[in-house]
Amino acid sequence: MADWENLRYFLALGRAGTLSGAARALKVDHATVSRRIAALEIELQMPLVERLPRACRLTAAGLRVFEQVKSMEGAAFAIDRESHAQQTMQHGRVKISASPVLTSHFLAPRMAAFRALHPNIQLSVMSQARQVSLNRGEADIALRQARPTEASNVARRIGRMPFALYASRDYVALATPEHWRFIVYDEQFADMPQQHWLLGVANGRPVACELSDISSHLIAAYTGAGVAGLPCFLGDAHGGLVKLESGGSAFSRDIWLVTHRDLKRSSLVRAVMNYLAEAVADTPGLALQ
User: Fold this and answer.
1) What fold is seen in the domain 4-85?
2) CA angle 258, 281, 152 (to 5 degrees)
3) How many CA atoms are closer than 13 Å to the CA of 48, on its beta-carbon side?
């Protein structure tokens, strides 16, 4: 029988398509991935991977094994979710995935308040721009800014995050919109909706700088680097910033609370989801109107 650890490495390689990509996903070096794949091929006595100069391609047999291993992984995660869902005591660990802005400026400031209400629940919060897989157990709960499409997930819209333009009260071009320079995202976020909105509002006016996260945009705007497009719950709470008239269309992102359908019965998950929904509803600039 094949070693499950070797199969897990093979699964990561099949998904990533490269040794380095699989290594990053597994947080190991690429030599370890290569060694595990070689061991699996010896165990199964068949070639699974074609090693190309810049990628790894699964053989026909490798593709069949890959689909079978995915099914095995899915069954393992289903067992794990069933175990989690059967927990009845308010004691354990719950993993949350959220965007960087919600992690830093919504969740982190509420850790103490949550602990006071639920001292036996440990929250593990992951700040991620990408969407994680709830099917694969990467998180128990996700706060997303786009409506989920996975059939295995259950979701509800709990909030709305409007954006506006902000600049320092001391920004040199504050009173002359034609001279505004904009703080935008770097090219890895070229397809992000708020980047499209921000560049549309800029309408050809210069870019002051490119930064990869909203916390950096906030600091750059506060220090006078230019005009930033910030969530209103964040910009309005910062006394050193002033909200500007954009002259463009209004922009906002919905906030969706998501879990896997197998976990909705878990008392731990329900307790955390109820807290998050109530906290969003009580936060100016995030509550549904």
Assistant:
1) Arc Repressor Mutant, subunit A (1.10.10)
2) 10
3) 26
